[in-house]
Structure formats: C-alpha cells, structure tokens
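Ticket closed. Logging final result for LysR family transcriptional regulator.
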Amino acid sequence: MRYFVAVAQSLNYTRAADALHIAQPALSKQIRQLERTLRVQLFDRTSRRVVLTDAGQALLPYATRILATVADAQTHMGDLSGSAEGRVTVSAQQSLNASGMLPRVLVEFHERYPGVDVELREEFAAPTIAMLADGRLDLALAMFDETWPRAEDMTVEPLFDEELVFVVGPGHRLAGSSVALRQLLLEPFVAFNQGAGLRQILERTCADAGFQPRIGYESGATGSVRALASAGLGVALLPRPVVDVDGPPLAPLRTDVALRRTISLIRAYERYQSAASRALVDLIRDRLSHG
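Final structure:
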C-alpha cells in the first residue's frame, strides 16, 4: 500500500523509488504483486507517462486511510510506552517563518523536547487539508476556507489576525503615497503563484475595486515577492509582520481598503494526536494566540 501510494502521488516510478529508497525494479515488482492480489490493474504505464486506472483511483483513498491508521497506531503505542521522542509534521504559512514568529516557537519547543523532530513544510493553504486528512501532516497554521474539500473533517482554532498591506519599493514613484485602490489599475503587480491564499485575496480585492490586477511577476516564495517589489518591479500585497522585519526595503501604501486575514491552527479531528504533537500545539497556542 505504501508503494502504491508513492507511485500514485508522483505518477513516476523513478521518483517514487527514490523517495522510498528502493530500486525501481523492486518497486515495479511490488506493484505488479499488488495488482495480482487485487485482480485489477492500478496503473496504465507507457514509455512516457503513468496514470491511475479507475481501479487505482478507487483504491487511493482507502490506501491513504489505511496508512494513516497504521501511523496513528504506531504513534499511540509510542505514547503509551512513555517515549518522549517522535516527529511532528507541520505546514505553515510562509509569513510565519519569514517574520520569525514560528522559528522562535520552534527554538523553545526544541529546548523543551530535544527528542522530538519537527518537519516544517510550506504548502499552499488548500492542499494542506488533503495532507492533514491522509496523515501527511499533523497540524497546519494557515488561513482556512470552509469551502475546501474535506474542510468539514477539520478542527479549526483561530489564533491571530494579520494585517495585509500593499507595498512598493522605496524608489517607486508611489512610495509614501495615499492612493485609492482603483488608482493601481495600470500598475504591474508582483504576486504569489496561483493557489496561494494571498493571490486569492489580491484578485478578490482588486475585483471588488472594479479591475483585474496586471501581474508582472509572480513567485511562490515570500522572499522573492518582497525582493521583486523592493526593486521597484511592481506593487505587492504582503502581511505586515513580513514587511516589518529586516530585509529588502519596502514602502507601504496607504489605500482605501483595510485587509486582514486570520491564521488558524488546523487539525484533522479523526486523527490521533501524539503527545509530541499536543505539546507543540499547546506551545503554539500559548505563544501565537492573540485571544
């Protein structure tokens, strides 16, 4: 099942074998054995691509749930043994890392629980829900949208609000200006890639003002968006905590819109929460919650 899920997620035998640290022929043999056992074909394989068959698509949610249940059982047994070790996998909005907020919490957590490893990921907000549901993540710090698939399977605890500001480089002709958002109609924007929460907020806010932002540059990295905007290549929308830390200089614009987003602690309520995960949740709640 683990091998099947790895191939299903990457749709590439070579990458799946590398991730599993096994030889590709051994992986192919195991998949063929699984297909013989189930009496179905799980993948259509050609020299150019690998795709899931209807049977493979039907099996995938069962397989991910099976693996998540096994992982939960192992974690639970570890907790009962009194082990103060383990791994917690966390997805966090990039702004929490770029501003230093989450790293400070993780330093304190490591001092308290040196036997626990924290795997930190920076995923777009929407895909984190699927990863939480199938056990690839223990918790997420993200802007939550109740319209996402599987959102009803999550527990959501709002932690704090972030102010969002439009910024330009200090040498930009609009630096220090007060502008109506509509005045940015012809300006190029430096934006996050499609799928990012801040990209959605940017597009929605501009649409409310009656225009579609003209995207001149886009990136998936907060540092890159900041650097491009600082260089004068366009207007960017960034969280205030990112703007306020050291880095390429930025000049916030005063506009006629006030934007904020809520960062929440998100978990899958059916998944077992390890002692290590609960300890990290408690520390995050103590250090980052503003009420």
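The mean pLDDT is 90. No further action required.
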